[in-house]
Amino acid sequence: MEGVIDSVTRDLLTRSPGFDWVVTEFVRVVDARLPPRVFHKHCPELQAEGAPVTPSGVPVALQLLGSDPEALAANARQALRLGATGLDLNFGCPAKMVNRHDGGASLLRDPRRVHAAVAAVHAAVGDEIPVTAKIRLGFADRRLALACALATEDAGARRLVVHGRTRDEGYRPPAHWEWIGRIRQRLSIPVVANGDIWTLEDYWKARTLSGCRDVMLGRGALADPRLAARIRHWQATGERLPETPWGVRAAILADFAALQRSTLPDRVVTSLLKQWLSHMRQRDDEAARRFQALKRITDLDTLLEGLATTPAEPAAGMTASPALTV
Ligand SMILES: Cc1cc2nc3c(=O)[nH]c(=O)nc-3n(C[C@H](O)[C@H](O)[C@H](O)COP(=O)(O)O)c2cc1C
């Protein structure tokens, strides 16, 4: 997820079991072949020995976003040369800026363009590495949902993730899991259900209504970093673990800051940390309280102190002095 799930976050999310694979933030392809540094920035895992995996061994697919088949193909070849072992094509991004420049979900208005993009990338890398795609149910409406899905399969995609909303629906609930099921019934490649899976119950409903064996987690994995592990545990044992307690979340946030701090300036880490805390507050009252109390803190150490204290013992910085407010 762009601006959210970088290599550090991928590392932290995959430290507990549950994820079978993860995807990078999208690499924006316009017309030129991009230099290796762009791929390495999005996917530092490419620089390690062997196939790109998280430190705990979960495969990392590299995502491309673009509309020009030739440019996508050139960048797919570049990614392959740099060691990518999975390429995912983004046809779901709803951002106005991206759509205005003819990328992401804007291609869903014409299944032939979806086909051309997937076919070009597939031809560029052959069957050496799998090409996968991610779509929404359409741009303004769902009329072309099936045609777009079939286009990805026909052009050589080996798996399709479907976010159960149109572009115009943005992130407004509900995600239409039953629509994902209609697509699944018509395709032979695996279809993965995505959208609004926040809890074990959501996971169950999404699987039941879509009929998909696999789901993709987005915001739900940030809101509860152990959601995938809780799903896996439920599958394996039938036991429902409760939502991840604040203590575990606070430890993850502390690790996140420590890892990010080794490469990024404190002010950037501060804002990334608040961003993740803000995702967590959707599912955790303590995270919501902390976010409220700490949102104006600009000093990273004060923020970390505020996250580390027990609920009964507010840190000095939690009542922000004017000097610390933005
Ligand atoms: C901030 C943000 C950034 C995202 N970036 C990407 C991206 O780079 N590539 C992609 O395929 N989807 C991206 N998405 C969409 C998510 O992968 C997912 O399809 C969507 O959020 C619905 O799933 P969820 O309800 O589980 O979050 C992004 C979503 C958000 C909220």
Automatic annotation (TrEMBL):
GO terms for molecular function: flavin adenine dinucleotide binding; FMN binding; tRNA binding; tRNA-dihydrouridine16 synthase activity. Keywords: Flavoprotein, FMN, NADP, Nucleotide-binding, Oxidoreductase, RNA-binding, tRNA processing, tRNA-binding. Residues 1-282 form the DUS-like FMN-binding domain. FMN binds at residues 63, 134, 163, 194-196, 218-219. It holds the Pfam family Dus. SUPFAM superfamilies: FMN-linked oxidoreductases. It catalyses: 5,6-dihydrouridine(16) in tRNA + NAD(+) = uridine(16) in tRNA + NADH + H(+); 5,6-dihydrouridine(16) in tRNA + NADP(+) = uridine(16) in tRNA + NADPH + H(+). The active site is at 93 (proton donor). The record marks 28, 90, 171, 274, 295 as: Interacts with tRNA. Its cofactor is FMN. InterPro entries: Aldolase_TIM, DUS-like_FMN-bd, DUS_fam, DusC, DusC_C, tRNA_hU_synthase_CS. Its EC number is 1.3.1.-. The keyword Translocase does not apply. Belongs to the Dus family. DusC subfamily. Belongs to the dus family. Catalyzes the synthesis of 5,6-dihydrouridine (D), a modified base found in the D-loop of most tRNAs, via the reduction of the C5-C6 double bond in target uridines. Specifically modifies U16 in tRNAs. PANTHER family: TRNA-DIHYDROURIDINE SYNTHASE, TRNA-DIHYDROURIDINE(16) SYNTHASE. This is tRNA-dihydrouridine(16) synthase. It comes from Halomonas aestuarii.
